[in-house]
Write a structure and sequence with these properties.
The complex is a heterodimer of chains A (114) and B (113). Helices cover 0% and strands 49% of the residues of chain A. Chain A is mainly β and 114 residues long. Chain B has 113 residues and is mostly beta strands. Chain B is built from no helices and eleven strands. In chain B, strands 2, 4, 5, 9, 10 and 11 form a six-stranded mixed β-sheet that branches. The chains are: A mainly beta (114), B mainly beta (113). The A-B interface holds A 4, 31, 33, 35, 40-45, 48, 55-56, 91, 93, 95, 99-108, 110 and B 2, 4, 6, 31, 33, 35, 40-45, 48, 50, 88, 90, 92, 97-106.
Chain lengths: 114, 113
């Protein structure tokens, strides 16, 4: 399968714990995006990378959130000191210039914070 | 905050019927996209629109980029049970090259056999 993959698919954690999610984009896609989706709403932009450079971060991305894409391939999203309000589906997408608007999404990681 | 208004919020139709949904904004978008999302999965891109007035088809799906650049609609003809899901519109605001998508809150489609 050459699509976007995300791991884990599900994560249950206790409030205050740290969690890390991984995204593997479609090979050769130079842009990688992270979105968050809560029930009944569309995805909300968090951050994006062009190759290894993180070029934009949403105000939704508090100091407890950090994302990396060290080699311009896979990316990780870490949430420190999780809160119940962090419970959501975290989606990763990738795209290839010049058609960067056409984003291919992974299946998401569903986070539940108890 | 959310800048796209998607309607209707939900639709219940009979198999074989045609469906129409739309998306409006107070801002000008230079790209409109339509996605479908199944439960527990990520959105799948259906159609991308790049020019005002553009009408594009993908099988039984047809979407149009509004002339004012502030709206778009999606039509599904002769619906079938596998059309069930949540349909999202998304757009990219004028004067941005980030590729960051702004999504509507979706139209949930139920098709009765």
């Amino acid at each position: 399968d050459t699509g976007v993959s995300q791991n884990p698919r599900h994560k249950i954690t206790k409030r205050g714990q740290n969690v890390t999610f991984r995204c593997d984009p479609i090979s050769e896609h130079n842009r990688l995006y992270w979105y968050r989706q809560t029930l009944g709403q569309g995805p909300e932009f968090l951050t994006y990378f062009q190759n290894e450079a993180q070029l934009e971060k949403s105000r939704l991305l508090s100091d407890r959130f950090s994302a990396e894409r060290p080699k311009g391939s896979f990316s990780t999203l870490e949430i420190q000191r999780t809160e119940q309000g962090d419970s959501a589906m975290y989606l990763c997408a990738s795209s290839l210039e010049p058609s960067y608007n056409e984003q291919f999404f992974g299946p998401g990681t569903r986070l539940t914070v108890l | 905050g959310q800048q796209l208004n998607q309607s209707p919020q939900s639709m219940f139709i009979q198999e074989g019927e045609d469906v129409s949904m739309n998306c409006t904004s107070s801002s000008i978008f230079n790209t409109w996209l339509w996605y479908k999302q199944d439960p527990g999965e990520g959105p799948v891109l259906l159609i991308a629109l790049y020019k005002a007035g553009e009408l594009t088809s993908n099988g039984r799906l047809t979407a149009q980029f509004g002339i004012t650049r502030k709206d778009s609609f999606l039509n599904i003809s002769a619906s079938i049970p596998s059309d069930v899901g949540i349909y999202f519109c998304a757009g990219h605001l004028e004067n941005t090259n980030a590729g960051k998508s702004t999504f509507g809150d979706g139209t949930t489609l139920t098709v009765k056999p």
